[in-house]
Write a structure and sequence with these properties.
alpha/beta, Metallo-beta-lactamase, Chain A, 2 domains, six-stranded mixed sheet, 22% helix, 24% strand, globular, hydrolase
């Protein structure tokens, strides 16, 4: 397998490029519209053909590149069937493997951050979206989020995986790139160790996080598989503009 972890600095989003060496087909997990050109250059430089984009959920902090990738190179849009997006070509469901060439991805429905959130398992690599972050987790106070559901998703679907499985989150804000199931079970301050559901719900209720500044634009745009609004305020324009420098993770 060909693997690249790519970083978008405005929303601190990780995009994952997975390529099948046998067929040359590739998928981008959680691509960001601001790094569209960078990602396509990476695909091309590796001699791959982008077959799919694959989002973990309807994002609130950036615009997905799914639709623009389809326009540019003809890649199909894969997204959770739960969200019933008319623009998606393939609806992802738990229990139905998703294949990219010889790569077989197992979708795991992990609601809590959003009700339609999915994680994706490929071999010993787990792409957790916002459900499980390094020493943290996604917030649960919008898009039908629910702390009880997130606790159940992580503890009953993710933490049952082997300890040495690698965890690749959708975001990190401290330049960390990967963790393991064992590490998160041992030291995640919200969900690890012997944290009870009641303790977790109190933690999430007491976060007092500010209202996401891009959510009112991102969610409608992502329900259309990645449409930037034409009336985007100037101070938010960088969420949709192509970024000159976007480091590779």
């Amino acid at each position: 397998m060909i693997f690249r972890q790519l970083f978008e600095p405005v929303s601190s989003t990780y995009t994952y490029l997975l390529g099948c060496e046998a067929t040359g087909k590739a998928v981008l997990i959680d691509p960001v519209i601001a790094t569209l050109d960078r990602d396509l250059r990476e695909v091309s430089s590796l001699g791959l053909t982008l077959a799919y984009s694959l989002d973990t959920h309807i994002h609130a902090d950036h615009i997905t590149a799914a639709l623009e990738l389809k326009k540019r190179v003809g890649s199909k849009i894969a997204a959770p069937a739960f969200d019933n997006l008319p623009c998606a070509d393939i609806g992802i469901e738990e229990g139905r493997p998703f294949s990219v060439g010889s790569l077989t991805i197992a979708p795991l429905h992990t609601p809590g951050h959003t009700d339609g959130h999915f994680a994706y398992l490929l071999g010993d690599r787990l792409f957790t979206g916002d459900a499980l972050l390094i020493d943290g987790c996604g917030r649960t106070d919008f898009q039908n989020g629910d702390a009880k559901s997130l606790y159940k998703s992580v503890r009953e679907k993710l933490f049952i995986l082997p300890d040495d499985y690698l965890v690749y989150p959708a975001h990190d804000y401290q330049d960390r790139r990967v963790t393991t199931i064992a590490q998160e079970k041992k030291r995640n301050p919200r969900l690890g160790m012997d944290k009870t559901l009641e303790e977790f719900m109190v933690i999430m209720a007491d976060l007092n996080l500010p209202y996401p500044k891009f959510i009112d634009h991102a969610v409608p745009g992502n329900k259309q598989c990645g449409v930037c609004p034409t009336d985007l305020p100037e101070h938010l324009a960088h969420y949709c503009e192509q970024i000159a420098q976007s480091p590779q993770g």
